[in-house]
Design a protein that fits this description.
Blueprint lengths: L2 H18 L5 H12 L11 H4 L1 H10 L8 H17 L5 H18 L30 H21 L2
Helix pairs in contact: 1-2, 1-6, 1-7, 2-6, 5-6
Length: 164
């Protein structure tokens, strides 16, 4: 899934939770967006990979795309790192929670791709595809464009409801 689709789907799904819990802040919204892009740090040509240079190349070379960064172990590792970084920078700890919500949303979204995600790496490398190989999208194809369009429509509607 391309970065713009990840952002649109994650924001469309999470905006009601942000708004209804009183957490609709710029900081939480930014953390959610960074979280939803972050798992693709293992792909040098991804949106985040293009902006992290050698880090992305190193992670991709060692673990591959949709490797450890696309697993439960990756969620736990980056949750701990995000909490440490936020504490070090003296930023609100709830940013880490919304970062992880975005991170997990990315993995769920990728689980609906044709190839799925190996959630249990490194213990179990079999990929899980949530659509049972019948309901899926392929990156950059019309199926993803449809998902982006629906997510954008939902997001626009929600922004009009919650923000305006």
């Amino acid at each position: 899934m391309q970065y713009k689709t990840h952002l649109a789907v994650t924001y469309a799904a999470a905006l009601p939770a942000l708004a209804s819990t009183g957490n609709l802040t710029i900081g939480n919204t930014v953390a959610l967006g960074i979280g939803t892009l972050f798992p693709d740090i293992d792909h040098p040509k991804s949106f985040i990979g293009n902006r992290t240079g050698g880090i992305s190349h190193s992670i991709g070379a060692v673990f591959g795309h949709r490797g450890l960064a696309h697993s439960i172990l990756g969620v736990v590792f980056f949750q701990l790192i995000s909490k440490w970084v936020l504490n070090y920078l003296q930023l609100p700890p709830e940013f880490a929670d919304w970062f992880i919500v975005g991170y997990i949303a990315h993995l769920v979204e990728d689980s609906f791709s044709k190839t799925g995600v190996a959630w249990l790496q490194p213990l179990y490398s079999r990929r899980i595809q949530f659509g049972f190989k019948k309901l899926y999208y392929s990156t950059g194809k019309s199926s993803e464009s449809l998902i982006l369009g629906v997510a954008m429509a939902a997001l626009i509607y929600q922004v009009m409801q919650f923000v305006l």
